[in-house]
Amino acid sequence: MPVAIITGASKGLGRALAEALAARGWDLVLDARTPEVLKETASVLRDAHGTHVTAVPGDVTDAGHRAALVAAAWQLGGVDLLVSNASALGSEPLLRLDALPPAGLRRALEVNVVAALGLVQEALPLLRAAGAGAVITVSSDAAAEAYETWGGYGASKAALDHLAAVLGEEEPGLRVWAVDPGDMATDLYAAAVPDDDDPRPAPASVAPAFLRLLDERPASGRYGAPALLEGRR
Fold first, then answer.
1. Please, which pLDDT band fits residue 233 given cuts at 50, 70 and 90?
2. Cα 54 from Cα 29, distance rounded (Å)
3. For a Cys-Cys bond, which of 1, 94, 183, 213 suits 149, CB 3.0-4.6 Å?
4. What is the pLDDT of residues 137-160, one digit of tens each?
């Protein structure tokens, strides 16, 4: 069976992607910082789909933890897909740039960019050996548009987009997709803008966009989930 590593997989989009892949028979290595929630997610997926699901709790900014994720995937047979979904906002709720603590920006960059690159570096030998290896980095429209209070988070996602674009050039044997999932009802969004009560799509409704990329394997690049769901690229 193909093997995927998914970070930030205990809830939200990460869990929805894990559910969609497990339903297709994928074996999974899942990461999140809260052990109890992550282990419950892994148990539910194993029971529902009969696939191998390994829970490896920890912080993606820790090099030892990243190595443990890749080692767990190697035990399952390798790495066919790496999904960098774990994200940090930089402040909760979001703040204007004149109030954003430098430590918060550093945390967003460490989680969203530096850790994502570190995990790719750790997994590259197995991704190259997979034959059809793929990397997905979860982006945001804040990476491309200027929204008040989203400056720190958006800057980190813009950096992640550029990292993914360069990786796609440097690794022509892989597919590297940066994916903007669009608005979703997630804990991350609720923490970012706690006063926004507008209804938003569930993460499970967005997962088919990611599956389309895996099915059709378009060129490396940046894609928007809403367009993929509508049949466009």
1. low
2. 5
3. 94
4. 999 999 999 999 999 999 999 999
Angle at 176 between CA 173 and CA 66, to 5 degrees: 100
Among the options 147, 153, 189, 223, which is catalytic?
153
* pLDDT value of position 188: 81
> Cα separation of 138 and 181, whole Å?
7
Active site residue 147: no
Structure tokens at 116: 């994502």
Please give the single-letter amino acid code of residue 92.
E
Alpha-helix residue ranges (DSSP H) falling in the chain: 12-23, 35-49, 63-76, 102-109, 115-129, 151-170, 187-192, 207-216, 225-229
User: Residue 119: phi, psi to the nearest 5?
Assistant: -70, -40
Measured distance CA(192)–CA(214) in Å, rounded? 30
Burial class (CB in 10 A: 0-12, 13-18, 19+), 156: buried
Side chain identity at residue 37, one-letter code: V
d(CA 168, CA 73): 22
